[in-house]
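haha ok so turns out i had the wrong file open the whole time. this is the CORRECT one, sorry everyone. sequence first:
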Amino acid sequence: MSDPVNITVFRWAGAWGPFKVKIPCGECSLTKDIIQDCIDTDLEGMKVELELRDWLTEWWKPLPKGGWHAPIVLVNGKIVSQGAALNRGVLTQSVIQEAVDSMPIEGNHIFGKATCPHCVNAKGYLEQAGVEYRYHDVVREPRSLYEMLARVKPIIGPRTPVTVPQIWLDGQYVGGADRLKELLELDDVQPNPDRGQCSLSPTRN
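then structure:
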């Protein structure tokens, strides 16, 4: 079971000597609201823990990581934002990047976009083979885009451009539509009626 991704926020609040701040700054409050909404929507179903800390009381704790200007947002101990209201896309991408490292992909997946003819072809190949799959639209769904990037970049390398579709079968990386077509034709992929997945082994008698 994967560990939850931890989001820590150091907000402009707390006390240090004679200085006391009881009401967090506006950007700190906005950042908290953005994070909570992001957890409820963009990151729905993912294991995420949110921790709020008072920067004035514990100002030295984020310093070794480069955090000095509240609101400071860390994801698994790494600073993703500070000194301004949080960009939710940055948070979503950072959380998903951390999560996929401990969440192997399972089943059959196509990451693509509606205007891509190769994505349409890939869906057609699987449907023709009777293989059930899940389709992720990387244009309309930010979570799908960030998950695709987080999963495929370690495979193809950071300098290789990411194109669509990106395909996985039975949790194994396939690549694009042409490679999928080759596998379906050369390896005689058959649907697995019990799991709605596929077998890349030759047909057994």
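The chain has two domains: 5-100, 109-199.
again sry for the mixup
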